[in-house]
Every structure is written in C-alpha cells, then in structure tokens.
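Hello forum,

I keep getting stuck at the same step: I have a sequence, I want structure tokens, and every attempt I make locally crashes halfway through. Rather than fight my setup again tonight, could one of you with a working pipeline run this one for me? It's a single chain of 305 residues.
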Amino acid sequence: MIICRLQGGLGNQMLQYACARSLSLLTKKKLLLDLSFLNDRSIAGITLRHYELACFRADIQIATPKDIRRIVAPYGHTGNGFLQRKERKLYKHWRKISNQKIIAEKCAHIYDEDVFSDLDKWGYFMQGYFFSYRYFEQFRDVILNDFTPRELSGAANDYVAQIKSIPHTCSIHIRRGDYVTNQSANAFHGLCSLDYYRQAIALILEKQPETTFYCFSDDISWCKENLHDTGAKILFVNRHDDTRNFEDLVLMSHCSDNIIANSTFSWWGAWLNQNPSKQVIAPRNLFADKTISTVDIYPPEWILL
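Reply #2:
Ran it on my machine without issues. Output:
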C-alpha cells in the first residue's frame, strides 16, 4: 500500500500524484491519497486549497484514517515543523521494526533517487511536492492517460475546436492571485516580470510570425492592460467558473507552444502538451530566491528566459 499526502493547489496535487503513481507502478502496490492536510483549516500562513484531482480519469482511491494509521503511525505530521522533527526522530526507531517506509522529501525541487529505493516494503507514506519531471517521465504515457479530463464544458470544447483550427497557437499563463495578495506566497514565489512575457512573445513570433496567443490568468484585466501593445494577436480566455480551472490547463496543453509562469499549474499545461515540436518558454528563476536550481524541474529542451 502507498499513501500520498496531498498539499497545495491543482498543479502541486498533480505532481504528488504522478510521483506516487510511478512508485505504485514500480512496486505494483495500491495507491491511496491522504486528504488530511487539504482538509485541515487550522494551518496559518498558507493559501487554503481543496482536493482537485476528481476532474481527471485516473482511478483514484482516498485513504481512510484507518489506512493512514496502518502506514504512518507515529508519523502524523500535517504542518507543524517542531512536531515534524520530533516525529522523524521517533520514526527512525519505529522503522527498524516495521516493513514500511516514509518518503519525506529532502528538497521540493531536487530529484531524489532515494524515493524509488527500497521497493520491497509492505507500505509507503509520501509527503512532499516532488517537483521534478524525472519522477514520472518514464511513465509519461500512463500519466498522460491519468490526467485526461473526465469531461469538458461546452465553452471549453469550443475553445479546443478553435485552437485546433488555427495553424499555430501559443498559450501564455500569467499567475497573480495569491502571489500578489498572500505575503508569504509572494516572498517565496515572486512574480514573473512583464519584461519576461514580452521577451517570450517576441521569441515565439520570431520563429512563427503568424502565431495566435491564448492568454490564461487569474487576473485577465491586468493582462489586457499590460499586453495590449506587444504587436501580437492575443485572445484573452476569460472564464468565471473557479470549479473548472483544470479546463485552462487542458486548453494550454492543446496549443502548439507554451509560455509558462512560475507556477506548477502552467508547468503541467506545457508538460501535457503532446506536440512533438513544441516550444516551451519558462522563467529561469522559478522562485524569488534566484539561487534555487531548476535543473531537475524543467525538461532539458525547454527554453529558459
């Protein structure tokens, strides 16, 4: 049995699921998702999220409290750093007499080959973000199938048909939202500059002058005000149903090329794009701390600006 504790928004949940799915394929063990962190509304300083993977065709099972206790006792951490350190010390002793493994990532953005070690355990518990394509690249076809949407709205289907009818398209994703309003999120992630988007658009147009751009954002008004003078043909996708944000991700994946934000959401839009000749332009600095390496985050063919 494998239990993966989800945290963060849709893009992060997809990363965690994809990594855990890979482990389940390697070990041939059942995968269950733990929603306790998402359901905990007492944790301060974070953007509150909810479970968002039900929109996909993946056969997902949710872990019960009993399932979780079978695997992770005494490791019940949901957010408190002090308790986490104490629990990890206790776990070192507990694991000696158990046939279970806790995979608590050492660093969210650095691939850890130890995640796929000890493949003979009875049970596994996973907690982290696992933000590296390397965790699931070997199972790309499976992940692509798992992340096929169950259904799209009429409006989304109309956009898909429109995108497919145009010879060359490129998505632009601009993430603002909590990156602007949440102080801790802003301090950690920062914002992609307007200059980054202008350079990315110019690079796409240099190679494909007839490109039609589709702009996706949680702040479309800002995008219209700031991208109107780029000289590019930009269509602003302005939809209002927050329960169907996954449709923006699907639409991005149907574009010929992608310009992404410092966001796991648009990262997935580009990764799911199955165009063999796609160009993906990504921000070189994914976080406010510019010293953080992205070598394990971006596939090597992506273009960094």
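The chain has a mean pLDDT of 87. If your local run keeps crashing, start a new thread with the error log.
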